[in-house]
Structure formats: C-alpha cells, structure tokens
Amino acid sequence: MNFYADERVALFIDGANLHAAARALGFDIDYKRLLTLFQGKGRLIRAFYYTALAEDQEYSPLRPLIDWLDYNGYTMVTKPLKEFTDATGRRKLKGNMDIELAIDAMELTPHLDHIVLFSGDGDFRRMVEATQRKGVRVSVVSTMRSQPPMVADELRRQADIFVELADLMPLIARDGPRPERRRDEHGPDDGDDWRETA
Q: When you count CB atoms within 10 A of the terminal residue's CB, does the N or C end of the chain come out lower?
C-alpha cells in the first residue's frame, strides 16, 4: 500500500460488500486490527462503516458488531432494511448504502488527502472520479482472487491504487476458529469474535 506519513486518510467501508469479499476468501475480519493497520499509515481522520439493519427483528446478528464498532473508533452509518415485493410476488429486502457513502465521501473530501474505499461495487466509479478531480487519492480494497472476482473492472481501473484484500488477510484476519455464540448472548468485550453476516 502506498501511503505518505502526513496524509489525512479516511476509510469508507461498505459493510455488506466487504463481508462478502472476506467470506469469498475464507476469512473473518478483525476490525480492531484493521483500524490499527490504517492508523499506522497516515493521519486517520475517520473510519466510516455502512450497513443496513432489519429494525423489526427482535435479534439482529449484526447488532453486536455494530455496537462494538460504534464504541471502538468507527463512525456507524445505518438505515433500516426496506421490504418490498418483486414482480414474481416474492418478498425481498433492500438495504443499499451507496448514496450515503458517496455523499459522506464528497463532503469530507476537502479535509482529506487519501480515501480508502472498501468495496468492489462499480457504482462507486463516478464518486471515485469526482474525489480524484478534487485532488484526493483513492485506494480501493476488494478482491480479484474470488470466483467470480468481487471488484468491478471499471472501479479497479479508476482507483489510484487497487489493494487486493487477500494480501491484507495476514494483517487483518481474526486468528483461530470463530467461537459459536447463542442468540441470547450480549455484545462482545473486544469485537474480535464478531463479524458481519449480511
């Protein structure tokens, strides 16, 4: 990864997309290690984490992760999942956070030198281009090593730097097997045992 010591850096994490990429590579992310890694790369201004939540459920498997991240250096951006019925009559859930992420990135751009986008979604290509026009470098973290690749080619081409998630695995992966948790257990002390299961 190519960072300068005095760069003002912000992380923009598309939670569902990052979780899917890590799962495709067969590992769980230790968010404490991820934050520490990027705190050592420059002046970390903010680490945003975006996810949609099912508000009407008694228990959400994401709630312990969200709570831990919120207390441990991440800025959480959430919204309720929307339920709709498709043309075939099937119930579907939708929780796209692209607009929220793009707006936050554009608003923060004047205060940053480097954006790290954790997503492979090609819809972010225009946002990346717009922030680059304002003089901000953009690194995209996703993977080409999954089948199929999780990063859109147009996004990878637009980025100043493409960071292969598999190369970060030794630095940000949780060590050891994931302990099983019962549904009635409360949140974690340290966040190491929790992951997004969107």
A: N
For residue 1, tell me if it sits in a domain: no
Residue 81: the pLDDT is 81
Q: What 3 state SS string does the chain have?
A: CCCCCCCEEEEEEEHHHHHHHHHHHCCCECHHHHHHHHHCCCEEEEEEEEEEECCCCCCCCCHHHHHHHHHCCCEEEEEECEEEECCCCCEEEECCCHHHHHHHHHHHHHHCCEEEEECCCHHHHHHHHHHHHCCCEEEEEECCCCCCCCCCHHHHHHCCEEEEHHHHHHHHECCCCCCCCCCCCCCCCCCCCCCCCC
- Does 178 map to a domain? no
The pLDDT assigned to 18 comes to: 96
* Average pLDDT of the residues of the chain: 86
Range of the domain at 118: 8-80+94-172
Tally of domains in the chain: 1
